[in-house]
Design goal:
Helix content is about 75%, strand content about 0%.
Length: about 260
């Protein structure tokens, strides 16, 4: 942490923004008595995870290896959006569905952008420009909300949608695995850019890494980890989304226009 210096600082402006969102949610929840305590818990768990992944020193540490980077991105896109959506009443999700928001289209665009993000030619370019990189990440995060709607507010086509979700996100994972098997990248592009910003020579990378990671194994395990976490998050989100809809169904039926 001493080597990272100011880059490992906590993001105070982001913390203030998230605290304001949390306060707004608390006031908003008071006006909606149908929101249960569990939903309050899920929403703030998502807020907390988002800050740890983006606004804490863990964000910089996630750049050290492919494994830590894929762990950070998997939690950011596969766990945080479902948690935040679980904190919102299912009836609002149904209203958003009726506005013809295409979650399947969002899933396709997200999968394409997520795949391009991890290409050896694209990732270093994005990381050199802070504005472009931040915009890219925010775009992926917004798309991840839309693609999780059918899972958190399940319908008749949930099984088919879940299958397509697994298939479309698989190329990004396979890209890392194949690069590892073929020896495509010597180390993480994010790690290389981080060392340039810190002005640390390549032969002194041990100052950041407390252990020597095999670069091929790092990429293979990173791809496998993302596959496993996506599958796990999908199963958990389907379960909790279905449970929430069952609990809210009687209340929705009693409401008459």
């Amino acid at each position: 942490m001493m080597v990272l210096g100011g880059m490992a600082a906590w993001n105070t402006p982001l913390l203030i923004i998230l605290v304001c969102i949390s306060v707004w949610y608390c006031f908003w929840a008071k006006k909606h008595p149908d929101i249960r305590f569990s939903q309050f818990y899920w929403f703030h768990a998502g807020i907390g995870l988002f800050y740890l992944l983006i606004g804490s020193p863990l964000y910089v540490l996630s750049h050290l290896t492919f494994i830590t980077h894929m762990l950070q991105m998997s939690i950011l896109y596969f766990f945080v959006p479902p948690l935040l959506l679980l904190g919102i009443p299912g009836r609002l999700g149904q209203k958003w569905k009726k506005r013809n928001i295409s979650s399947f289209l969002a899933l396709i665009i997200f999968s394409i952008l997520f795949f391009l993000y991890h290409l050896p030619q694209v990732l270093p370019f994005l990381y050199k420009n802070l504005v472009i990189h931040t915009s890219y990440i925010l775009c992926l995060f917004a798309l991840s909300f839309l693609m999780w709607f059918p899972v958190i507010t399940p319908g008749s086509s949930l099984k088919r949608y879940s299958w397509w979700s697994s298939i479309l996100l698989m190329p990004a994972c396979l890209l890392l695995i194949l690069n590892g098997l073929l020896g495509g990248q010597e180390n993480s592009p994010l790690f290389s850019q981080l060392m340039l910003k810190l002005c640390i020579p390549s032969d002194q990378s041990a100052a950041l890494l407390p252990f020597q990671m095999n670069t091929k194994a790092d990429q293979i395990l990173g791809g496998l980890l993302m596959l496993a976490l996506h599958k796990f998050s999908l199963m958990v989100a389907i379960r909790f989304g279905s449970q929430r809809m069952c609990l809210e169904k009687p209340k929705i039926k009693t409401v008459t226009p």
